[in-house]
Amino acid sequence: MVGVYLLELAFDGSPDRLALRPAHRERLRVLHEAGRVVLAGPYSDERGALLVFDVTAEELDAIVEDDPYYRAPGVKIVRQEEWNPIFR
């Protein structure tokens, strides 16, 4: 069943993730155009990011598995949770 999922990332300041960021953002753009990413972006202080997906749990697992950015040095998934928004 399709749901809304939050994915929160933490960055430790390592610059290693930056090499993977352009390809990661391109993946997010494609997913956004397909209606699977609702919102995505870093916090203003660059300590992490929040992504909101409109997918199944299995699709989210596949998205995370297919994108090496989520395993890059300096990137840690700190929260992956289904969310029940009141408005969509």
Count of individual domains: 1
Characterize the overall form: globular
> End-to-end distance, in Å?
16 Å
- The strands making up the biggest β-sheet line up spatially as 2-3-1-4
User: What is the CATH C level class, in words?
Assistant: Alpha Beta
Low-confidence stretches: none
Mean pLDDT: 96
Give the CATH superfamily: Dimeric alpha+beta barrel
Estimated share of beta-strand residues: 35-45%
DSSP strand count: 4
Secondary-structure element series: EHEEHE
Second-tier CATH architecture = 2-Layer Sandwich
Largest sheet: 4 strands, antiparallel
Task: Give a verbal description of the structure.
The protein has one domain (3-83): Alpha-Beta Plaits. It contains 2 helices and 4 strands. The chain is globular, with a radius of gyration of 13 Å. By secondary structure, it is α+β, with helices and mostly antiparallel strands. Strand 2 (37-42) and strand 3 form a beta hairpin. A 4-stranded antiparallel β-sheet has the order 2-3-1-4.
